Amino acid sequence: MVHEPKSGQDDVILEVNNLRTYFRLDEGLLKAVDGVDLKIKAGKTLGIVGESGSGKSVTSQSILRIVPTTAAVEGEIKLRRRKQGKTEVVDLARMEPEGAEIRSIRGGEISMIFQEPMKAFSPIHTIGNQIVEAIMLHRTKNKEEAKRMAIETLRKVGMSNPEQRFGEFPHQLSGGMRQRAMIAMALSCNPSILIADEPTTALDVTVQAQVLQLINDLKRTIGTSVIFITHDLGVIAEMSDEVAVMYLGKVVEYTDVESLFYGALHPYTQALLHSIP
Ligand code: ADP
Ligand code: MG
What CA–CA distance (Å, rounded) separates 252 from 49? Predict the structure, then answer.
């Protein structure tokens, strides 16, 4: 039932093959992600949709190797990247979860935003200093330059008066502004891939629309590839080029966004489409 979107191989920057993430629980093995294949293309958005518990978040956490130690990640997570002028392919599944290599990829090449910005920011440091710290880890050792880049990124995500915002603490911002600040932090290191896990679920409708628009604008102007995770098919339609539908830890439908709405094959996808009010 899974039919893959047509494309050449050369524009694929992340390829996930037979990803399996199992939690060892007292009751036995929980197959949270059970043989998932995905391809992320340069400058495109792959939407991942599915009901709560279908394995969307664990899939994204597995890609970044940030799953709890009670889980094992198996399969291939191949990232194509430019290093010192050369293209190389590395397999994130083979890396030590706390090793230097994956830590430089996290935030540097693959960034993540999610529902609650307070999970990304420390409450006791200013927004600006936290972005500067991320930049100094990945882009420049020069603090003044890092500060300029941070303010520039805050401006890019549509924050009014970015110099002032720079010195504010996370709790001083509104929900929508905090979400923008998290996007700024995620993008401040020029990642080639942004993973957005239900980033607008907690926002009210108007702010949600603004944040979605922002992600689409940034994707167009910066060329970042996006993995956009949501349980909302309306949001999927607005954000995605291609869509993977997840159900019980598996991808049951994988197609371009137009075909999803007009040619869905899997019974689960059809039920999901029919459940739209
Ligand atoms: P989704 O993001 O699609 O709502 P998740 O990826 O969070 O779903 O969860 C997939 C499955 O893995 C669920 O059955 C969930 O209960 C389980 N799960 C997620 N995180 C953990 C964890 N830390 N420990 C044990 N089980 C987990
Ligand atoms: Mg989730």
Answer: 11
SS3 48: strand
- 77 with 14: CB under 8 angstroms? yes
Q: Which atom of ligand 1 is nearest to the CA of 50?
A: 3
Candidate from 22, 56, 58, 70 with most ligand 1 atoms within 8 A of CB, to mutate: 58
- Ligand 1 in contact with 54 (CB < 6 A)? yes
End-to-end alpha-carbon separation of the chain, Å?
25
Cβ-contact 262, 51 below 8 angstroms: no
**Model-level pTM?**
0.93
The mean pLDDT value for 201-217 works out to: 90
Inter-residue contact 138 to 107 (CB < 8 Å): yes
Residues whose beta carbons lie less than 5 angstroms from ion ligand 2: 57
ipTM metric: 0.99
